[in-house]
Design brief:
The complex is a heterotrimer of chains A (345), B (800) and C (175).
Chain A lengths: L6 E3 L4 H11 L3 E4 L5 H6 L7 E4 L9 E2 L5 E4 L4 H6 L1 H6 L1 H8 L4 H6 L2 H5 L47 H7 L3 E6 L2 E6 L19 E7 L6 E8 L10 E10 L4 E10 L6 E2 L1 H7 L6 H14 L10 H23 L8 H4 L3
Parallel strand pairs in A: 1-3, 2-3
Antiparallel strand pairs in A: 4-5, 5-8, 6-7, 6-8, 9-10, 10-11, 11-12
Helix pairs in contact in A: 9-10, 10-11
Chain B lengths: L15 H6 L14 E7 L5 E7 L1 H5 L3 E5 L28 E2 L5 E7 L2 H10 L1 E6 L6 H4 L12 H4 L7 E9 L2 H7 L2 E8 L12 E7 L2 E6 L4 H12 L6 E3 L16 H13 L3 E4 L2 H6 L7 E9 L5 E13 L5 H13 L6 E10 L13 H19 L3 H8 L18 H12 L1 H4 L10 E13 L8 E8 L5 E5 L8 H13 L6 E5 L16 H28 L6 E4 L2 E4 L6 E3 H11 L6 E7 L21 E13 L4 E14 L4 H21 L4 E2 L2 E2 L17 E8 L20 H15 L10 H14 L7 H7 L9
Parallel strand pairs in B: 1-12, 10-11, 14-15, 18-19, 25-28
Antiparallel strand pairs in B: 1-5, 2-4, 2-6, 3-5, 7-15, 8-13, 9-10, 9-12, 13-14, 16-24, 17-18, 17-23, 20-21, 21-22, 24-25, 26-27
Chain C lengths: L7 H4 L6 E7 L2 E7 L5 H8 L18 E4 L2 E4 L12 E3 L12 H9 L8 H14 L5 H8 L10 H10 L10
Parallel strand pairs in C: 1-5
Antiparallel strand pairs in C: 1-2, 3-4, 3-5
Helix pairs in contact in C: 3-6
Classes of the chains: A alpha+beta (345), B alpha+beta (800), C alpha+beta (175).
């Protein structure tokens, strides 16, 4: 339970919510599904004086826009994303990513926007501090770091764990942001600062209103894998999302975006692995080289009890499998994927 | 023999309807007007002197009704065991020193949660930090920080530091035995820190009113709680009533007295109002008690046919900051070593070592999983080195029925040999074993076997169970039993036995249980003795009531009791069937003609009725149990050799529980223990650093979810039988079946990959490391002895 | 829920209290809540329905699962204020007219209950699943229940209960 009293506002629109956040200033926080904010308030990592709740607002359904892009209301629940016919047809990687977040109940409560704007995590941080780790760490406004005592105050190695962000970044998604200056657009990727202290580059009155995913071209293939110990209720050991395009005539890769989440303060692009694939034939040898490059170029932070070397070893094997899936799909040999195989209702 | 109506049948749970409708009242569900919220101030340091406590600001906070520290207690100590050798060593609140992170220092009662938390924050404590020690081998060194002085008795046996307890025993001559052996090997195994994970938090409501303390608390035995709580409060038992509540899982973690129970009671006595204390899940993970991590050093000598000649075992327990149950686990580790196989020469030493962690509690199997994992792993290695298959080596060593154990106990109808044979047959063991490492795919399957044995019922306070069966004048029965249902189905099993003995429909049997005022004393749900001890007491009580009914009828009919038969609540003279009376009529007659005898049956039972007390924890001398259950379990695992990930596909359990009173309840116990074993094997680990818990939540302590469910096959070897009117022997099923699966998993991993696990958990990291070493040596089958040492990380996790 | 003494520290907080109307198991309740009060506390304390359990306060165990407007939710993380005007169903509302629902009956028949603490949350997650998908496959069942921890049963009997309740050929094992 949350052990202090706070004010609660229920604005009638996102515009109103943004205005409320502006008016209330630093002491206000936005809540949508609440599945990130309330646990954080319970352990007193966040202690807003006012919660501005948009959870009751009804999201608009996802639409295919005239340029072929898919626009998704940020307030859409992850369970609805997972089940949406349009998303499963047009953005199956996003449907899959939404479907592996946490557990069923949380997916019904949590929103896509909230999942993308979640704070970074660290075992020391994400627990109550009544008698354990009482002195606040840098991220909590204090003057030390428990896991890395040699870190300076501007460095926090908490890790960004979102399952949906890597998929959307791989898909080159953009976001619509409501803020002081009205509406603006940015790439989703640019939202992530890479700083554990302040991982989301938004002002306190900014609200992500929508996520827009551009239409994929021909020869598109995707692969996604959340590596985890158990089949559910997990944060990833790493989260791998690959989006490829194959130049079908030549069976080579015309573009590749490889995004790894849950290993650093922000999702990272495996640019060297992308380079290996660029203009290369999408065969086993290339895929093996790209996987090796990805495993070699990442500098994972240990997190949630997993060591750096294990995260790397685990990724080295799984990214190859994910790349293969993406290549297979891109080359049109994706017979085994689709609605029936995932067994979703 | 006439067929049984209830015993042996999968009767639906008596408490099922309450539980599926939400009517079941657990400790947190009891409501009393004016209830205050209690919270505890806990130590932020693993080891420190308390220089000063100032609770004045907390006491002055509006809404705070009471604050207590150790100065408000009677200073009476308690302990998991209380013997001359191991006197009680724990106070309910810290006096002068704190010895683990989370140790209880003070408690408050306030009108709501927010004020209670603020009050805790307002208690000023000045600490002087002391050096702390976390590793038992470090703690035993002469220059280690002293957590407690070693007691004189124990100090005379060993010069090591921080020894909370020691067990030493043996027989024969191990040096001679090793000299005679054809093959000797030594191995070291480590088990890690893992925890019970019960869904219901620790929760207590205490209400002191009219000089009587009423308590509702989540526990494994209301009579044990009453005794301990009364003792530390310095109250007579008659002033303390532990009420019946449903209990949401325990697995060993809710026996023994907890500080919050004392604090809720004491705060209620001071304020005159009910006080509720519920531990947060974080408190449970970081400040409450986990299972014992054991290091086992095992040296075994065998003949070339695999028959054990000598064994030398040393078990080191990381006990935590107080004695707790650590002194018992080092006794039990001996027991679980010597039970399943004959060991002509044995030398055993167990050491329980203080460290600056929360003290431990028994966890389902209480050392058996750790021990059997070690011994069964080593036995498989011996078998392989000698060219003997795992089934044969076990059959050769397995105890046979009616063997006398070295401690004077007897194994009675031990079904171990049949268990091994049937488990091997059902799993197709011999055909599948050894195939794993021949597979060329990166996904490999392996099969492994684990043998175990467990005891059912031993002597520890309160030592005996009583049951009362009172007939209602409509012929139905109410059973008063102190037994507590923690999920295992105690109420159902007792109802089945009473219904059987009284020839009643089970719907006519009501159970009133686990209330220290209204029900007879009971041993509690923590030594796997309910079905044997309380069950026989219930049988006797029901039989006693039946005898009274029959006597009244016999008198009326003018015949012998033996001429009577009972069916459907009617007593009939077999020789003259016109003579019949309903139970209702018999009871009315009893009241009319026997000075108002309302027909109450009484029964009581105790294990080992001629033994004065439990065996010596120090020397193991003395009778331990008269019910030993044996089991053989097989696990099939699948390993992805590229990632090191492994999972259990299927587990086969064959056990000789005697006979199953309720087969579906037995199956439930087996399924649950398979799940706990695979959690222990692959998923669960309490991560600590410098005495702090890093993952005090279910998000980061990974218990099996439904995705990890393994297929579980369960079969019984029936070695006993139930006859109405006769006492019966039955063995346990609730604890001993984690161990064989854990051992089987370790052996199955080896079968699949050639990687030998020397420590739990069997993480992908360890598997990958082991696989790499095999690759480097270029030998896909066998593994070097030296290479194993690198295969595992130490049991305590470190972030690199 | 009611401050029996009115300490200064919280006096200003009462202006944050609001009255909400929540329909629980087809009965309307008016309760006074503050923003920090989660639905689980309101159900268990103010409304007196203790069937819904609080296992961890942090949404990691599923014991607090209820249905809100037909959707499964973790009541330990649901702000009670947001439930104003909503239909909440708890375990106490599953039985109708004295008859337990098929899934409750199946739990009894399959031995899917041991300690019973996970049972209410499980039943609500399953009820929601079966309302959306009357004949779920085992993978679908697992997906729907992955947020509900059980420590006693190993889940085998629970999955069998769902298969029995959805008429997929699993026979009762307890009578």
């Amino acid at each position: 339970m949350i052990l202090y009293d706070f004010d609660y506002e229920r604005p009638a629109s996102l515009e109103q919510a943004s205005a409320d956040l502006r008016r209330l200033g630093k002491g206000a926080r936005l809540a949508a599904g609440g599945t990130a904010l309330y646990p954080s308030m319970r352990v007193e990592n966040d202690c807003p004086t006012t919660v501005v709740s948009v959870g009751a607002l009804t999201p608009t359904a996802p639409v295919r826009q005239s340029d072929g892009s898919i626009r998704i209301d940020a307030l859409m629940r992850l369970a609805a994303l997972e089940r949406s016919e349009l998303i499963r047809d047009a953005l199956p990687m996003l449907a899959e990513a939404a479907g592996v977040v946490a557990g069923a109940q949380i997916r019904h409560m949590a929103t896509l926007g909230g999942n993308l704007c979640q704070d970074t995590r660290c075992l020391y941080l994400n627990q109550k501090h009544d008698y354990q780790f009482k002195s606040p760490c840098y991220k909590r406004g204090g003057d030390l770091c428990f896991p890395y005592p040699n870190n300076t105050p501007d460095t926090c190695w908490s890790v960004y764990m979102s399952d949906t962000a890597p998929a959307l970044i791989a898909l080159n998604a953009g976001v619509e942001i409501l803020g002081e200056g009205g509406l603006r657009r940015a790439s989703l990727e640019s939202l992530y600062t890479g700083s554990g202290l302040s991982p989301i580059g938004l002002a306190s009155d900014d609200i992500v209103r929508a996520i827009v995913v551009p239409a994929a071209g021909g020869g598109f293939g995707w692969g996604y894998r959340k590596s985890a110990r158990r089949g559910g209720m997990e944060f990833g050991i790493s989260v791998m999302a690959v989006a490829l395009s194959a130049d079908e005539g030549m069976q080579t890769c015309s573009s590749a975006r490889i995004v790894i989440g849950a290993i650093r303060e922000a999702p990272i692009r495996a640019t060297q692995a992308e380079q290996v694939l660029s203009a290369a034939p999408l065969d086993e040898a290339t895929i093996a080289r790209a996987a090796a490059a990805a495993a070699g170029e990442i500098r994972p932070l240990p997190h949630h009890g997993f060591t750096k070397s294990y995260i790397r070893d685990d990724l080295r094997v799984k990214i190859r499998r994910v790349l293969q899936e993406a290549a297979d799909r891109a080359l049109g040999s994706a017979a085994q994927f689709g609605r029936s195989a995932r067994g979703l209702s | 023999m006439e067929p049984l109506s209830y015993v042996g049948k999968s009767v639906r749970r008596k408490d099922g309807p309450d539980k599926v409708t939400g009517r079941a009242v657990y400790s947190q569900d009891v409501k009393l007007p004016g209830t205050l919220v209690g919270r505890i101030l806990r130590s932020p340091h693993p080891h420190a002197r308390i220089v000063r406590i100032d609770a004045s600001r907390a006491r002055q906070l509006p809404g705070v009704k009471a604050v207590i520290t150790v100065d408000d207690t009677k200073g009476i100590k308690h302990g998991f065991v209380e013997t001359p050798r191991y006197p009680p060593d724990q106070e309910v609140l810290a006096r002068d020193r704190v010895r683990f992170v989370g140790e209880e220092i003070a408690a408050v009662a306030a009108v709501d949660q927010v004020i209670a938390q603020r009050a805790i924050d307002l208690i000023d404590v000045e600490y002087e930090l002391l050096p702390a020690v976390f590793d038992p081998f470090e703690a035993m060194k002469p220059d280690a920080p002293e957590i407690h002085p070693t007691l004189p008795n124990v100090r005379s046996e060993t010069a090591l530091s921080n020894i909370a307890g020691r067990t030493a025993t043996g027989w024969g001559d191990v040096d001679e035995g090793f000299a005679q052996a054809d093959y000797v090997r030594e191995d070291r195994f480590e088990s890690h820190l893992r925890t019970h994970g019960y869904l219901e938090p620790q929760a207590t409501l205490a209400h002191w009113e009219d000089d009587k303390l009423n308590v509702w608390t989540s526990s494994m035995g209301t009579f044990v709680k009453r005794a301990k709580l009364a003792k530390v409060l310095d109250l007579p038992y008659s002033a303390v009533r532990i009420h019946k509540t449903y209990v949401g899982g325990t697995f060993g973690g809710k026996i023994d007295l907890y500080s919050h129970e004392y604090c809720a009671a004491r705060l209620s006595m001071i304020t005159g109002r009910p006080v509720r204390m519920v531990a947060t899940r974080e408190e449970i993970f970081s400040a409450y008690r986990h299972g014992q991590p054991l290091v086992m050093e095992i040296k075994t000598g065998v003949r070339k046919d695999g028959i054990i000649v000598a064994q030398q075992v040393r078990a080191i327990n990381n006990a935590g900051a107080y004695r707790g149950s650590g002194v018992v686990v080092i006794f039990l580790a001996w027991g679980f070593t010597m039970l399943p196989y004959r060991i002509p020469n044995l030398a055993y030493e167990g050491l329980s070592v203080y460290t600056n962690y929360p003290l431990r509690a028994p966890q389902r199997g209480h050392g058996c999983p750790q021990i059997r994992f070690a011994i069964e792993s080593q036995l498989d290695r011996i078998a392989e080195d000698l060219g003997i298959d795992p089934v044969t080596i076990r059959l050769r060593n397995a105890r046979k029925p009616w063997e006398e154990l070295p401690n004077g106990d007897n194994v009675h109808e031990a079904g171990l040999i049949d268990c091994i044979k049937l488990a091997a047959e059902k799993s197709g063991f011999l055909a599948r074993h050894g195939q794993g490492r021949r597979q060329t795919s990166t996904i490999r399957r392996g099969i492994g076997m684990g043998v175990s044995s467990y005891f059912g019922g031993s002597l520890i306070y309160p030592n005996g169970s009583g049951v009362i069966v009172k007939m209602a004048d409509d012929g139905s029965a109410t059973v008063l039993t102190g037994a507590i249902d923690v999920g295992q189905g105690a109420e159902t099993v007792i109802a089945q036995i009473v219904a059987e003995e009284l020839y009643l429909p089970i719907e006519d049997v009501r159970i009133i249980s686990s209330d220290t005022d209204t029900t007879p004393q009971d041993i509690g749900a923590w030594i796997s003795g309910m079905t044997y001890v309380t069950g026989n007491a219930a049988r006797q009580a029901a039989g006693n009531a039946r005898t009274k009914l029959l006597q009244v009828a016999a008198e009326k009919f003018g015949c012998e009791i033996e001429a009577l038969e009972t069916r459907d609540k009617i007593v009939r003279n077999r020789a003259n069937p016109d003579q019949q009376l309903t139970y209702r009529e018999v009871i009315a007659l009893s009241i009319a003609t026997r000075r108002g005898d309302t027909v109450i049956g009484e029964g009581f039972w105790r294990t080992m009725r001629d033994e004065p007390t439990h065996p010596s924890l120090a020397t193991t001398k003395g009778r331990w149990s008269e019910n030993y259950a044996f089991s053989c379990q097989v696990a099939e695992v699948e390993v992805d050799t590229e990632t090191g990930e492994a999972r259990v596909l299927k587990a086969w359990t064959v056990h000789d529980c005697g006979f199953a009173v309720n087969p579906a309840l037995v199956k439930g116990q087996v399924d649950g223990q398979v799940s706990m074993a695979l959690g222990h094997a692959f998923l669960e680990e309490i991560l600590t650093k410098d005495g702090y818990t890093l993952n005090p939540s279910w998000l980061d302590y990974r218990m099996p979810t439904v995705h990890e469910m393994a297929s579980s096959d369960d079969a019984e070897i029936v070695t006993e039988q139930y006859t109405v009117g006769k006492s019966y022997r039955v063995k346990e099923v609730g604890e001993g079946l984690v161990s064989g699966v854990l051992a089987a998993i370790a052996n199955a991993i080896y079968d699949a990959t050639g990687v030998r696990m020397q420590s739990t958990p069997f993480t992908p990291e360890k598997l990958l490391r082991g696989l790499r070493q095999l690759e480097r040596k270029g030998r896909p089958g066998r593994q070097d002895r030296d290479a194993e040492k690198d295969a595992d990380e130490p049991a305590a996790a470190t972030l690199d | 829920m009611n401050d029996e003494s009115m300490p200064l520290a919280t006096r200003s907080a009462t202006r944050r209290s609001q009255v909400v109307a929540i329909c629980v198991n087809d009965e309307w309740h008016e309760v006074t809540v503050r923003p920090r009060h989660m639905l689980v506390e309101v159900l268990r304390e103010a409304i007196g329905l203790t069937g819904t359990k609080d296992g961890c306060e942090q949404g990691a165990c599923g014991a607090c699962t209820v249905l809100i407007d037909g959707t499964p939710a973790l009541s330990c993380m649901t702000v009670a204020l947001e439930c104003d005007g909503k239909q909440v169903r708890t375990v106490e509302g599953l039985a109708q007219g004295g008859q337990v629902s098929p899934i409750q009956q199946a739990f009894l028949d399959q031995g899917a209950i041991q300690c019973g603490f996970c049972t209410p949350g499980m039943l609500m997650s399953i009820t929601s699943l079966l309302e959306r998908n009357p004949r779920p496959s085992v993978p679908e069942i697992k997906k729907a229940l992955e947020g509900n921890l059980c420590r006693c049963t190993g889940y085998n009997a629970i999955v069998d209960a769902v298969l029995q309740a959805s008429g997929q050929g699993v026979q009762p094992i307890m009578k």
